[in-house]
Amino acid sequence: MSPVHPHPDRRSPLVLEVHELARRTGAMKQVSTTVPAPADLGIHMIGVPHGSDIELGLRLEAVTEGVLVTGTADVQLHGQCSRCLDDIEGEASFDLQELFFYPGHEVEEDESVVVDETIDLEEALRDAVVLELPFTPLCEEDCRGLCPECGVNLNDDPEHSHGQRVDPRWEKLADLGGDAPN
């Protein structure tokens, strides 16, 4: 049983027309475009800001089963370091590869399909970006993080210390002080 796939919103910049490939195996189309990032393209600590530019360099190729999309997505990343909580900003490039099946082929629920001679790249883009983002992003590979006692950023103050600590179980004995008997 083939799952029912919704009709794509043709107003979305991530929906591309593929009618010129017309099921002609080997036909190819190059696409270079800049699109705004969809919402929630990332994970808790790092992601692509909503509405920021995504530069797509794609090759759409008609194959027997459907349309094979390969290429790259260049994005701006914004997030926080998981150790020191400083802001992280940078650029990244992600590889895209997705096969969109023509109607009539037996497909699983999670497989992409060509609907009304269009393909919707949002899910493929989301998979490519989110699955490759670091789960614990770092501002630098050797980030020292925050002091567990007071929260000072140890990258800014590497010599930070709180002096010699006394075990709290022995603290009261330190108050007895005095000279030791001979």
UniProtKB/TrEMBL annotation:
InterPro entries: YceD. It holds the Pfam family YceD. This is Metal-binding protein. It comes from the Bacteria.
